[in-house]
Amino acid sequence: MGLPDHFMWGGASAANQCEGGISEGGRGLANVDVCPAGPDRRDVITGHKKMLRMDQEHRYPAAEGVDFYHRFREDIRLMGEMGFQVYRMSIAWTRIFPNGEEETPNEEGLLFYENVFKECRKYHIRPLVTISHFDCPVHLIEKYGGWRDRRMIGCYLRLCRVLFERYGDYVTHWLTFNEINMILHAPFMGAGLCFEEGENEEQVKYQAAHHELVASALAVKLAHEINPNNQVGCMFAAGSAYPYSCRPEDVWEALLTDQENYFFVDVQARGYYPSYAVKRLQRKGVCPVMAEGDEELLRAYPVDFISFSYYNSRCIAAAEQETAEGNLFKSAKNPYLTFSEWGWPIDPLGLRITLNEVYDRYQKPLFIVENGLGALDRPDENGCVEDDYRIDYLREHIRAMKAAVEEDGVDLMGYTSWAPVDLISAGTGEMKKRYGFVYVDKNEDGTGTGNRTRKKSFYWYQKVIETNGEVL
Ligand code: BG6
Predict the structure, then answer these.
(1) Residues 6 or more apart whose Cβ sits within 8 Å of residue 117
(2) Cα–Cα distance between 268 and 233 in angstroms, integer?
(3) In a 3-state reduction of DSSP, which class is residue 453?
(4) How many CB atoms lie within 10 A of CB 196?
(5) 370: annotated active-site residue
(6) Do 139 and 125 meet the contact criterion of CB atoms below 8 Å apart?
(7) What is the CB neighbour count within 10 angstroms for residue 104?
């Protein structure tokens, strides 16, 4: 019993939420840079308010992030100290191709990530690289309207080729798109989509999704051609949908919600559009236009493994119910669960349920690449953060994960918690919603020294890794 020896422990972050330095190193402007903090954020990330430039009235938290761009050596050293075996991180597309379609990549950007990988190597940390984590050059949004245009596939593959060729010595594990199903809930973040008055949003989203799915299959092909040791995974926002009651109508609605999310993985892992999706898209008149050969490509290049984020389960009711928040979208409030300070359900058993469901469905290795608690941390007079609430959350989720592996036989490659060092929230743009084992001295208004301090959970996680999950 116990987790396998090759099980990988670590943490995960995203370039736009931690790097900052958006006008350094020749970097271009990206969609995530122009998502403001505050009340307009929701409309911007959902594509309902077009803001492709920064203005004076808003604050743009990605501009500074938590300064990983300058402090990555310190941050990776802290990860090394915790014993990380894997660090999931993402590439800022516009550091490599500032406008997304230059002939040659930007050497300064390439060097930055090379240095990051070298630093990881010092501590025997293997990078797991998300090629696009809510990331799209603004130039491509202006020129093509983001992923609604098929030409995005070529731009994305140009990036992939450079990454696979240049970083072959450092990276063998890749994820094509972060939370690909979030294109339905945060289409500007997920695909650079801004909607025009009166257009059929669903059609645009599924067309863009189709382009990402084809791009993902072609990335798998390219990765394997360039280095047969490359392993490429998909990534989706998971969390099983529970029926609000055993009323068949509730059960049916929950099934539909699950299908909406599994649709993406069905295509990426099985290699074809599932029949339920074909029927539904046809019925709604929103079938994506496919090019000749797309279906063959999807079939020929499924992913090697499946990764996902898990923060909470969802609860689905046919009739109107009180709602609860959750990772980017709301669902009915589950009366049997407790909730985080941001109103997200806390459901460790839900992780075991989700792991079983996903593994049953696909029979491919899984990887939990995000899981964690966004909470307010209050350093005491000595600057220490006693984050027992975070330890409790993670402990219970890791217990559930272990049960799924040890008792249910789920094939799980590893676990990377979100996020090792505090960073900016994707959903709200807040700094005060913290996930880290390491506290960053930075306030909501951007003030603070940026200094890093180990929280209580830092030492706890260090022990968890040292004992391969035996001491929790
Ligand atoms: C996932 C994203 O949606 O959840 C991350 O992949 C994000 O980018 C994480 O940070 C937590 O969400 P939030 O909104 O609390 O930052």
Answers:
(1) 127, 167, 170, 171
(2) 9
(3) strand
(4) 10
(5) yes
(6) no
(7) 7
279 CA to centre of ligand 1 in angstroms: 31
Residue 1 has pLDDT above 90, yes or no: no
Note whether 100 and 25 are within 8 A (CB): no
Classify the C-alpha dihedral 147-168-410-388 as positive or negative: negative
What is the C-alpha separation between 151 and 41, in angstroms, rounded? 28
CB burial of residue 193 (10 Å; 0-12, 13-18, 19+): buried
pLDDT tens figures, 192-222: 999 999 999 999 999 999 999 999 999 999 9
Q: Which of 19, 119, 253, 370 is catalytic?
A: 370
Read off the DSSP letter of residue 269.
I
Tell if the pTM clears 0.90, that is, is over it: yes
Beta-carbon neighbour count of residue 291 at 10 Å? Answer: 12
Q: What is the arithmetic mean of pLDDT over 258-279?
A: 98
Q: Cα separation of 3 and 413, whole Å? A: 10
Q: What is the pLDDT of residue 365?
A: 98
Q: CB-side exposure of 204: number of CA atoms within 13 Å?
A: 23
Give 108-143 pLDDT, tens digit per residue.
999 999 999 999 999 999 999 999 999 999 999 999
Q: How many CB atoms lie within 10 A of CB 103?
A: 6
Architecture, CATH, for domain 8-466: Alpha-Beta Barrel (3.20)
Amino acid at residue number 257 = T
Residues 6+ apart with CB under 8 A from 205: 183, 184, 187, 191, 193
Query: Which among 179, 212, 253, 430 is annotated as catalytic?
Result: 179
> What per-residue confidence (pLDDT) applies to 322?
86
Closest CA to ligand 1's atom 10: 426
Q: DSSP 3-state assignment of 236?
A: strand
Strands 452-454 and 314-316: unpaired
Residue 295 Cα to ligand 1 middle (Å): 31
How many whole angstroms separate alpha carbon 394 and alpha carbon 371?
A: 8
pLDDT at 329: 73
Query: Domain limits of the chain?
Result: 8-466
